[in-house]
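Title: Request for sanity check on MYO10 protein prediction

Description:
We are preparing a figure and want to confirm that the structure record we downloaded matches what your pipeline produces today. Could someone re-run it with the sequence below and paste the raw structure tokens into this thread? We only need the token string, no images.
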Amino acid sequence: MVLRGYVPTSEETLQTLAALRLQSLNSDFSTHAPFPRLEELFPPHVLHARLPPPPHRPPAKCRGARLRAGLLAGGLWGQALAKQRAERDQRLRGRLREEGASTMAAIVEKWKLLQGMDRPEAMAAYVALVREWPGFGSTLFDVDLHTSPIGAGPQRLWLGIGAKAVSLYKPGEPEPLDSFCYGRISSFGASDSSTFRLSVEDRDLLFETSQVDEIAQLLNTYLASAGARRPPQPQEPPISPLSLEPTVLPQGLCPAAAPWQHRPPVGSSHS
């Protein structure tokens, strides 16, 4: 979850986490120690965010302009544009290598400061840093919010489901935009196969997501275990109750895989 960018924290802390991971894997710094690839230690999106955005190309306004653009693209002008794109891509790759080397050097310097720390200590320090995020322990789901108390939708958000509350996060932001304790939730359920509805007091929140069933099951489990479960409204399909001691809880956020593949929740022992 850290490497995929779903534990929002500062770049300095991300470097420290990478150094602790190296200490856990290799013990004290040594020039002969095997080095994992940077993307196995540090979130790649942080490096990509440093690169300049691609140039904006305004759309053609009429058929004649599109036709002229097509004719130009097929001739010398098109070849010149292709050459410019190739040169720009090469510069970006070079810049990315430089940023990666600079980040790895900073991680190694922090690793050197951990000399004498054994593996259990490094793991404990790693988890302690991650626990500083208020959303630690929640299961996160990537959703599009269509009915929003914080502005016009849809918005891409994280839906965090924890033991005590449901929270909405702007991706990458450590503090929630809003948070609802289970006592405020009046009903919830699937509007259709890709839309989940959550009623909080006098507000209805509609989330578009590929994990409707997982969200409903996890909410039902937490509400039941907290003794705060409330029946769905009549127009909703009923939600079957889950055991209070499930063997496996539904998992959230699968950013690097198909949406049905399970991943460990934030707060698990995986980095």
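Thanks, this matches our download. Residues 76-112 form the longest helix (37 residues).
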